[in-house]
User: Fold this.
Amino acid sequence: MAKEIQSTLREIVGKLKIKEITYFVGVVASPFVIIYSLNKYIGFSDNVFELILTSTISGTFLLLMIFIVVREVMSGRKEKYANITEQIHYCSHISRDMPSYLNEIDPSALDEKSKKHVFSVTTNSIVKILDRIATIYSMITGTRCRACIKTIYRKDNKLYVRTLARDIMSYESNSNTDKERYNNNKGAIEENEDFDMLYDDNTPGESYFICNNLIKRRNYTTSSFKVYGEPDKELSWYDVMVCKSWPLPYRSSIVWPIQQKENRFLRFDEIGCIGFLAVDSESRGVFHKKWDPWLGAVLQTLCFIQSINYFPLLSN
Assistant:
């Protein structure tokens, strides 16, 4: 019985957060205690005492409002992260099940119709993962985010990227453009600042590219300008503020390399970088550098597992 009472009391204390409330009351009350103590020993005039008291109340109220706003912003982001666990779990399920599905299939024993079916199922699994990734970042940022996988291919001793898959919504509006860019080789890695930085061995330690305001990034280079048009070279502060003359449909982006590197604890032949996972938003200042890139690093690993199983299917 005593243990049950003790457990109940602990639950009540935990819910009421009595320690936090006591600390908060102490912080708010301490300035007034100090003022009244000083007045008792020094003896301020009524006007001075009223001025000090009014200033203290105003300052305390202002600090309290700032504290509430900051706490709400910080806890709001954490709550959003708590709400995406189901989406990540769904991505993990697909990434786990698709290799098992493909391992049961012998490509040489399939007719043309069966190959197309397997290809369609596998492609759809990647699209579903990207759709959830776009949903995850849309939930976190409160903006419409897009997600895609770019894979690397070589032509005439030059490296290019092509769009392997997109989330469903962005696929509808970009499928023709993606095909045209691939057919005309408009995605050289060296022409894309983000891809070139992550693929280049001269920039070790770079595990992601993040920019919350591409408009303000000086000399930003991307092959997408060939499709959407070049921005004005000289932009006034007003043009930057209202995004005037910015041709791209996104203004913030994060990019991760889809790769496998050497592991000092495990021996295997590293595959290296096979592509990139990109997430972007039409709004500025939406990504949090402390948390968002590392979430994407986890999702990038799931994309690697899917892609590495997808390539043999493409070759067949």
The chain has a mean pLDDT of 80. Residues 96 and 305 are 9 Å apart (CA to CA). The two ends are 69 Å apart (CA to CA). Residues 86-315 form a domain with the Beta-Lactamase fold (CATH 3.30.450.40).
